[in-house]
Amino acid sequence: MGKRDNRVAYVNPIAAARARGPVQNSGPSIQDYLSRPRPTWEEVKEQLEKKKKGSRALADFEDKMNDRWRKELAKNREKLLGGADKDKEKEKKAMDKDKKIADKEKDKEEKKEKKEKKKKDKKKFNRHSSSSSSSSSDSSSSSSSESEDEDEKKSVKKKRKKKKSSARRASDGSAVESDAESKKKKRRVKEEGDKEKDEKSRRRKRKADRSHKDSSSDSSADSGGEEGVEAKKKKRSSEEKERITDKSKKKRRKKHKKHGRKKKKKAASQSGSELDCRSAAVYSTNV
Fold it and tell me: What are the CA-CA distances from residue 274 to residues 42, 268, 278, 279 (Å)?
């Protein structure tokens, strides 16, 4: 067997193309592509400027949105500023009220001081006028002025004592109320603690009862289970004994059957042999 000839004739592609002849133009050539119409530099600049500017509709839309946002921001600013102004006005009103109250208190104190000064001036004037009179009148006026001064001092002391006593009573009442509230709170806390203790003790008792019941039920179940196991064992032993007896009976029956068959075969063979002997004897006699 020789080798297979796999050689192929070589064809020069350039020569083959020349032999085919000129190819028909199926589309634009390179010269057509290079000589295509192109825009001037000015036209390119105009196009770039248009792209940068964007569309007029979009610009108008952006302007409208900006105007809306500006209006909303202005409204929000007005609201915030109005709220701040209202807060400032409230603070000013509160300060004015405090100032008015302080001014009223000062006016009352000044009026009281003026009244006291007038009284003292009157007393001094009365004392000077009474000095020109006789010594008896002087003593009487001095005693009356002293008595008046003492009365005023006593009235002032009484007023102070009344104020102090009222303040003490108020403080005592608040202290008593606070003590009563604290006692009530302590009682409530104690009652709540006692209730919680009772509940805990009840829960413990219930748990103990449940555990006792569970243990008793488990013990009864264990005892019942042991009895059931023993009963099952007895049943199994009795069933096994019955099976063994049945097997032994079957074996005995098989043995009896075999023995009977053997006896029958022996009897048949013996009877056959006897018949043969008899037939032979008869044949011999006949001969």
Answer: 151, 10, 6, 9
Q: Is pLDDT larger for residue 139 or for residue 14?
A: 14
Task: Report the residue count for the chain.
Answer: 287
pLDDT in tens, 157-197: 888 888 877 787 777 666 667 778 888 888 888 888 888 88
Q: Would you say 107 and 88 are in contact if contact means Cβ atoms under 8 Å apart? A: no
CA angle 251, 256, 259 (to 5 degrees): 125
Sign (positive or negative) of CA dihedral 274, 276, 278, 281? negative
pLDDT in tens, 251-267: 777 766 666 677 777 77
Number of neighbours of residue 129 by Cβ within 10 angstroms: 11
Identity of the amino acid at 29: S
Tokens (6 digits) for 46: 């105009």
Q: What are phi and psi of 99, to 5 degrees?
A: -65, -40
Cα–Cα distance for residue pair 193/199, rounded to 1 Å: 10
Alpha-carbon distance of 67 to 14, in angstroms, equals 74
Q: Which two tokens stand for residue 216?
A: 């008793």
The string of DSSP codes covering 228-252 is: HHHHHHHHHHHHHHHHHHHHHHHHH
Can you tell me the distance from the alpha carbon of 124 to that of 117, in angstroms, rounded to the nearest whole number? 10
d(CA 223, CA 233): 15
Asked if residue 149 lies in contact with residue 131, where contact means CB atoms within 8 angstroms, the answer is: no
List the structure tokens of 263: 């006896």
Q: Which of 166, 159, 160, 129 is nearest to 144 (CA)?
A: 129
User: What is the rounded distance in angstroms from the CA atom of residue 26 to the CA atom of residue 72?
Assistant: 66
What six digits make up the tokens of 199? 């509940």
H or E element that contains 79: helix 56-131
